[in-house]
Structure formats: C-alpha cells, structure tokens
Design a protein that fits this description.
Length: 160
C-alpha cells in the first residue's frame, strides 16, 4: 500500500497520541474530520493499522524474564505444534522461521525457575524435537514503528 505524507502524519499521531479523539487529530492536522476518518478507515482496511488497544508490560504483570526459545519440530507437525503453543500463556509471540529451528517464540516468565518450567512444557509437546533458549538481558531498541513510517513517508514524498 502506498503511504503518502498525510498518511505518515496521521500514523505519527496515532502512535504518539493514541488516546486523542479523531476530532482532535483533525484539528492538529488541519484537515476535515471526514477526510481523516476516511484515511484511518483505509489504513485499517488495508492492514496498515491493525489495532488500537493498550500496550501491556509483561514485567509489570509479574513476568520480568524474557527469553527467545527456538523450537525444532518433527517434519510435518509444524501446524500442530503451532496450535499447541497458543495454549501456553507465557508465549507472547511465535513465528515459523528459516535457519536454526522451525519456530521462534518470545517467552515471558516470573523468574528463571518458571522459565525452566515453561521450557519443559514446550519440550513435552507432541512433535517437538528440541529447544534452544536465549535469555534477553536488556532491551536496547524497544518495539517501534515510527522510524519505519517516517522512512516510508519520505520515500513516497521523494518519488513524486
């Protein structure tokens, strides 16, 4: 999807001021509310904007330990293992990958002992051959999309 300069400005506001009303966004951007709403609707329909919910902190919820667990799966069982992972609440994300392993999961835990319990649960899932765990020590770049949005918007502006 092509994102133009106005889309970029809208996305910046949605990221930086997520609790602001559409009416206030329109005032800030100095555009008609209907124009803004049509743009937001298009961004949602085309999958650029995928949600508006709050961002939660696993650490604040009592799960400060973060690990990335690579899972090797028996051939032909990727879908079944993927579905089983959805039943493990400590898995906050899971991706099928190339390279060393078949799945990469982001796992949160209360402490190292709890992490070990979660890993043991994963190892015992039918179709799991082995796991490899990497502990996160410190977040260096938090999840963010604004620099990408700005880069896409600049590229769109310069291609005109």
């Amino acid at each position: 999807m092509a994102v133009d300069e106005l889309d970029t400005r809208i996305l910046r506001l949605l990221i930086e001021q997520p609790r602001t009303s559409v009416r206030q966004y329109a005032r800030i951007l100095q555009i008609a509310r209907g124009t803004l709403q049509a743009r937001i609707d298009r961004l949602e329909r085309e999958g650029v904007v995928t949600g508006t919910g709050p961002y939660l902190s696993p650490a604040a919820l009592g799960h400060p330990v973060l690990a990335f667990v690579h899972i090797e799966v028996t051939q032909g069982h990727l879908d079944e293992v993927g579905e089983a992972l959805a039943a493990v609440p400590e898995i906050v994300e899971a991706f099928s990958i190339t390279g060393g392993g078949d799945l990469l999961t982001r796992v949160v835990a209360r402490d190292n002992g709890h992490l070990e319990d979660v890993i043991q649960r994963l190892i015992n899932l039918p179709g799991v051959v082995r796991t490899r765990t990497e502990m996160a020590l410190r977040e260096r770049v938090p999840y963010r999309l604004l620099p990408l949005v700005e880069s896409v918007g600049k590229a769109a502006g310069s291609s005109r």
